[in-house]
Structure formats: structure tokens, C-alpha cells
Amino acid sequence: MGAITAENVAIAELVVYIPTALLTVWVVFRHGVHKQLGWIYLAIFSGIRIAGSAMEIQSAHNPSDTTSEEWALILQSVGLSPLLLSTLGLLKRVGRIYTKRATATSRRSRAVQLLHIPALIGLILAISGGTDEASDNASDHAGGQTKVRVAVVLFLLIFLAALLLWAVTLRDFRNMQAGQTRIYLCVMVAMPLIAVRLLYSLISNFGNSPQFSLIHGDEAIRLGMASVEEFLVVIMYTILGVFTPRFVGVPEANGRGSVEEVDTSYGPTYQVEDEERVGSGRGHGRHGRH
């Protein structure tokens, strides 16, 4: 068996992420581009990994091409943000479906929206810091290392917040429908994988072991603690998107003896509720209000 090299890992990532990216794009359009942010971030992540792998291969075949090496390093350092944002998007979808209090202004919904801010800040810091770390200037390199460390700390805090949100949601597990149960359990399985990926970043940036260095570290460790975990989370979330119905509503008698399904995604749901209240009055409320 040959040694695991950065080029080998990059080739493997291209093999798995190119078809996965096509599938995630299909999932995004299937559920609605403006509705399912959880899956949009998966598509973005897949694109980042494809671009980073291409840069890695280019750098391996042309060692003098420092630009490709620099961008490969930058793109490798921004994986956590899309994964965390995707997880938050899925948890937000679950919360907006099963609980009667989960409206656009609910506390859980606001919490998820607020967590997007540090996640995006962390993404910007990771990109900026990765750029500075690739610099030959000692001052820029030190400043870049600080930025990346701050980004990793932000990702840790976001992960802990997402874990808390998942735990709080557990008390309403029995009220969820089958589709939402699948989302919730999928996130439960993904959390330990994201934790291992986060641990790798923490050791890489705060530890002193050269084996965990993103530049010239042990590729077997990166494969086992980062690449595999990332792919498993992406493929689980993508398969979840394939099998999750576009319209997963709460059964409601509509006065004609039938059951109506409503879009339980984001904004349009509330418009349906408003129109129903106008047409039916306050006495004809919704039993499955989001």
C-alpha cells in the first residue's frame, strides 16, 4: 500500500465531491433555493472542496506555483463554517415544523439566525488568516495564525450552541413527524463527526505537533480526522435531502373532510396562515401551526 500523500487525498476528494456536488445542487433546487439554507451550504462546501483539491493537485505537479499552494491551504481551512451552518439550517427546519410556538420570531429561530453572524465572521477570518499564514512575512504569518485561531474558537462556540439547541429540541422529540425525526437523528449522528473535525482544527492551530500542520502535516491524520468526517456528514445530509419530502405538513381538517399539506420550510408558510385567517376567521384556526 502506497503512502498517503496530499495529492492522493485531493484526488480522492475530487472523486467523491464532484458527484456529491451535483446531487446537492439537485437537492437545493428540489427543496427551493431560498428556503433550505441547510442544503445550500452543503453545495457551497462541496464546491470549496472541489476547488481546494484541484489547487492541491496543481501545487503537487508544479511546486513552484505558490499561488495554488496558498489557495489550497486557504480552502482547507474553511470547511467547518459551511458544515456548522448546514447543521443549524437543518435544526431550524425541525424546530419550525413540530412546535406551535416556532414562528419567524421564536427564540430558537432567532438564535439560529444570530449564530449565522459568528459563523460568517469565522469564515472571513479563516480565509484572511489562511492568506496571511501563507505569506513569507513573519508579521503577516503571525497575524494570520491569530485570525485562524479566533475563527476556530468561534466555530467551537457555534458547535456548542448547536449541540445545546439539539439537546433542547430533544424534549419535543415525540411530537415530531417521521420526516422531522429523520432530520433530527441525522444531525445527532453528524454531531460527533463534526466534533472530531473540530478537534483536528483545534490541535492543528493550538497544538505544537507538526503532524497536525495543515501545510506539511501527516496526511493520514488529516484523512482520518478531517476528510472522512467531512464527507460522511455531507453524504448523510445530502441523502437526507433526497428523501425528505418537499412539502411535509401537519395534517389539518380543512372543513371538507380532507387533509391539507403545507410547505413547512420558511417564509411562505406564514403567508399561507395569514391568508387562511383572512378567509376563515379566528374561529377556524390551524391545528398544525408552525
From TrEMBL:
<dbReference type="Pfam" id="PF24800">
    <property type="entry name" value="DUF7702"/>
</dbReference>
<feature type="domain" description="DUF7702">
    <location>
        <begin position="7"/>
        <end position="243"/>
    </location>
</feature>
<protein>
    <recommendedName>
        <fullName>DUF7702 domain-containing protein</fullName>
    </recommendedName>
</protein>
<feature type="transmembrane region" description="Helical">
    <location>
        <begin position="111"/>
        <end position="130"/>
    </location>
</feature>
<feature type="transmembrane region" description="Helical">
    <location>
        <begin position="39"/>
        <end position="59"/>
    </location>
</feature>
<keyword id="KW-1133">Transmembrane helix</keyword>
<feature type="transmembrane region" description="Helical">
    <location>
        <begin position="223"/>
        <end position="243"/>
    </location>
</feature>
<feature type="region of interest" description="Disordered">
    <location>
        <begin position="257"/>
        <end position="290"/>
    </location>
</feature>
<dbReference type="InterPro" id="IPR056119">
    <property type="entry name" value="DUF7702"/>
</dbReference>
<feature type="transmembrane region" description="Helical">
    <location>
        <begin position="150"/>
        <end position="170"/>
    </location>
</feature>
<keyword id="KW-0812">Transmembrane</keyword>
<feature type="transmembrane region" description="Helical">
    <location>
        <begin position="71"/>
        <end position="91"/>
    </location>
</feature>
<keyword id="KW-0472">Membrane</keyword>
<feature type="transmembrane region" description="Helical">
    <location>
        <begin position="182"/>
        <end position="203"/>
    </location>
</feature>
<feature type="transmembrane region" description="Helical">
    <location>
        <begin position="6"/>
        <end position="27"/>
    </location>
</feature>
